[in-house]
Amino acid sequence: MNKLRYVSLSLTLLLTLAAGFAGAEEKEEGWISLFDGKSLDGWKINENPESWKVEDGAIVAQGERSHLFYTGRDFKNFEFTCDVQTTPGSNGGIFFHTRFQEEGWPAHGYESQVNNTHRDPVKTGSIYNTVKLFQSAAQDDKWWTQKITVQGKRVTVEIDGKKVIDYVEPDDKEGTVKLSEGAFALQAHDPKSVIRYKNIAVRPLP
Question: How does pLDDT run across 110-119, given as a tens digit for each residue?
Fold first, then answer.
């Protein structure tokens, strides 16, 4: 066999095997991508659709109050990650265990706050109206990874790998702002706020 052809075939085989191992590892880890980087397929806007667009591989929230709900399926126990970037003075949020509603601030589930320098004193990573942080571990104009983990009654939030929230919900928690099961939603807060969300993924947990 021609030596050059042999090397070429060997390289092709190695690449094929490597791709197979990578695919098996990805499948084993169980991560599910929620955003294709190109469209809002699998998501539903409740009001003011002009507040949302996809640009440079990210979901951009800017405009009047609006929420973008993931409609693929509901989740109970999970690890969720999302890369986030804000402009100075921006406010947004990531909701979990929520459900679609036609208008207004989501009434079900919790919100993980996105806010580094907005006048609202509750900063990035906080579980809004439940566990408040008054300093942000993230910075405007820089991408950070916001990770939310729910396991039973425990919620943790990490910013770039730093744990900022470790909350255990009381068994007697009443109302609709509590753990149950549900969707994710992203928030467009106001016209002066510009939030970018990308690399959105979830891994279901037992």
Answer: 999 999 999 9
